[in-house]
């Protein structure tokens, strides 16, 4: 029982990372109906930037905030420069560009930062009071940071003029233009936010998986599974899916399939959801009257 | 062809506007004006280019050539959002409400370009006075509203931007006659009280002629007649061919 609880709690901690990745994926999907396969590599690259800043003597949280800003700008630039000319292109072209971005950022990271595994610091000291036998302080911190970030994102979309405009642009670009919203910029901002969310996931995951160019390859798969499970068009379902996948992964890994087949479980989950409930567990069914 | 040109500078002027969807040309050398404070109906059979004319003005979906002037400035090369910012509100074909957002959010979006928070709030109240049903539906998703309610919401949203010119594409489409009467009464009131100019596309010709002070008649993408409603309806040939009366 003790062991099961332990698996569940640390599953929630991993789930926090998947939740951020899933929300980043959903944010771009909502606006463009495209799944950003390069999200994980972007997050990895951001984490390397954070690591460089910290090694250069920046305080952790200073580097954290600067990395969010950097990732936001990278996201905006990618949308403006790379994705924008592709508007209206067939889905396959976009997919190829996403894969190109994935390879590009992976290569860039290897080239600039090298292949050797690096340690990445946790801002939560190992002996902090909020640690317990179930969760290490870093795991508690990870969940805490994720919940804070999710809350900020929620408040932004719910209560600000810009957040409302971004939701409007995602739902109905044509009507959005008619009320004066610059839809192109809203897409770019969405990319920026997704980039920053991915960076949070990367910086929280790195102390556990270690920092190296392929650190996100597993995480992004769980992120996809989480987004699909929660509902790829549902910004509230995706993070829930993240926590759920984290727990599933851990419990099944410990008692069902063993740790070697954990990734295969994510794939099975993806295929299962697509086959049996493509809208996901919390996929929104909008009531529409004609 | 009758032509009555207002003496003062028009608020909106189209000069020899062509418009096409891809290779299909829909408008040919369309020219007409809307006077400041005026109400103009754009009439014609299905496929005459009425909706396309409104789209050309807002630079959505169609490619245009020719000149469009609004409030003294050329707008035909501006992106849609800048045309909205110039003071043109558009209630599009199919209403274009944000179905997944609440009624309140739809109204807030209508005022997206305005920074005067307090006046925006009082305009929301004004819209509720015009369309009391919106008050009741305020926190509901727009997609759950009936067709008539969505049409009112679409008009209210456009008015929230305090446009100088309101473009309306078939506001009576699919609505019960009582509701249509109500909507037209409000349009008349807004025109009188706020001096909002109106360019109306409408299948219900009698209703349109009753509201407006100027008519532009389109046939297969060309302006074939333009003038006072009484002059247009007096022409027997025009009546039989286009007005179904």
Architecture overview:
The complex is a heterodimer of chains A (290) and B (245). Chain A starts with a helix and ends in a 14-residue tail after the last helix. Chain A is an all-alpha fold and 290 residues long. Chain A has one domain (2-276): ABC transporter involved in vitamin B12 uptake, BtuC (Orthogonal Bundle). Chain A is built from eleven helices and no strands. Chain A is globular. In chain A, helix 1 packs antiparallel against helix 8 and helix 10 (237-255) crosses helix 11. Chain B is an alpha/beta fold. Chain B folds into two domains: 1-87 and 164-245, Rossmann fold (3-Layer(aba) Sandwich); 98-162, no CATH class. Chain B has ten helices and ten strands. Chain B has helices at 50-58, 80-86, 103-110, 117-130, 132-137, 147-160, 177-194, 205-211, 229-234, 236-243, and strands at 12-21, 24-34, 39-43, 63-70, 73-74, 88-91, 165-169, 197-201, 214-219, 222-227. In chain B, the strands form two sheets. Chain B has a six-stranded mixed β-sheet, sandwiched between helices. In chain B, strands 2-1-4-5 form a four-stranded antiparallel β-sheet, with helices on one face. In chain B, a hairpin with a 2-residue loop joins strand 9 (214-219) and strand 10. Chain B starts with 11 loop residues before the first strand and ends with a helix. The model of chain B has no long low-confidence stretch (mean pLDDT 91). The A-B interface holds A 161, 164-165, 167-168, 171-172, 174-183, 284, 286-290 and B 58, 60-61, 79-81, 84-85, 89-90, 92, 96-101, 105, 108-110, 112-113, 141, 143-147, 157-158, 161.
Just give the CATH class of chain A.
Mainly Alpha
How many helical stretches of chain B? 10
Poorly predicted regions of chain A:
none
User: At the first level of CATH, what is the class of the largest domain in chain B?
Assistant: Alpha Beta
Number of DSSP helical runs of chain A = 11
Short summary:
The complex is a heterodimer of chains A (290) and B (245). In chain A, 72% of the residues lie in helices and 0% in strands.
């Amino acid at each position: 029982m003790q062991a099961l609880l332990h698996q569940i709690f640390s599953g929630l901690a991993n789930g926090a990372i998947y939740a951020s990745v899933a929300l980043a994926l959903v944010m771009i999907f909502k606006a463009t109906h495209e799944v950003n396969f390069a999200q994980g590599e972007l997050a990895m690259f951001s984490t390397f930037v954070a690591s460089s800043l910290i090694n250069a003597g920046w305080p952790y949280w200073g580097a954290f905030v600067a990395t969010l800003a950097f990732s936001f700008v990278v996201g905006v630039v990618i949308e403006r420069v790379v994705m924008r000319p592709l508007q209206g292109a067939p889905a396959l072209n976009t997919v190829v560009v996403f894969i190109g971005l994935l390879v590009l950022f992976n290569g860039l990271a290897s080239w600039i930062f090298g292949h050797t595994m690096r340690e990445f610091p946790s801002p939560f000291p190992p002996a902090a009071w909020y640690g317990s036998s179930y969760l290490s302080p870093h795991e508690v911190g990870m969940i805490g940071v994720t919940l804070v970030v999710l809350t900020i994102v929620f408040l932004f979309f719910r209560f600000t003029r810009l957040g409302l405009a971004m939701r409007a642009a995602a739902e109905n670009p044509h009507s959005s233009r008619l009320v004066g919203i610059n839809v192109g910029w809203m897409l770019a901002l969405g990319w920026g936010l997704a980039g920053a969310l991915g960076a949070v996931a990367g910086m929280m995951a790195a102390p556990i998986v270690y920092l190296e160019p392929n650190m996100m390859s597993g995480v992004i798969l769980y992120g996809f599974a989480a987004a699909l499970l929660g509902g790829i068009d549902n910004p509230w379902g995706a993070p829930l899916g993240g926590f759920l996948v984290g727990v599933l992964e851990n419990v099944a890994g410990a008692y069902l399939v063993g740790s070697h087949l954990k990734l295969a479980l994510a794939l099975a989950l993806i295929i299962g959801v697509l086959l049996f409930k493509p809208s996901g567990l919390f996929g929104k069914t909008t009531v529409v009257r004609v | 062809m009758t032509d009555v040109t207002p003496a003062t500078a028009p608020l909106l002027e189209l000069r020899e506007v062509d418009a096409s969807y891809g290779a299909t040309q829909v408008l040919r050398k369309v020219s007409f004006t809307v006077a400041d404070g005026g109400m103009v109906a754009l009439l014609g059979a299905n496929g005459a280019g009425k909706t396309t004319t409104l789209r050309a003005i807002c630079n959505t979906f169609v490619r245009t050539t020719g000149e469009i002037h609004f409030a003294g400035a050329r707008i035909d090369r501006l992106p849609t959002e800048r045309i909205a910012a110039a003071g043109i509100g558009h209630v599009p074909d199919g209403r274009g409400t944000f179905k997944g957002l609440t009624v309140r959010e739809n109204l807030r979006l209508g005022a997206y370009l305005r920074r005067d928070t307090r006046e925006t709030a009082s305009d929301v109240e004004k819209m509720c006075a015009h369309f009391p049903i919106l008050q009741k539906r305020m926190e509901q998703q727009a997609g759950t509203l009936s067709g008539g309610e969505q049409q009112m919401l679409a008009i209210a949203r456009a008015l929230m931007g305090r446009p100088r010119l309101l473009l309306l594409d078939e506001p009576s489409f699919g609505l019960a006659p009582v509701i249509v009467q109500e909507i037209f009464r409000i349009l008349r009131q807004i025109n009188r009280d706020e001096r909002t100019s109106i360019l109306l596309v409408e299948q219900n010709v009698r209703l349109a002629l009753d509201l407006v002070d100027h008519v532009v008649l389109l046939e297969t993408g060309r302006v074939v007649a333009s003038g006072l409603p009484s002059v247009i309806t007096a022409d027997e040939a025009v009546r039989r061919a286009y007005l179904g009366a």
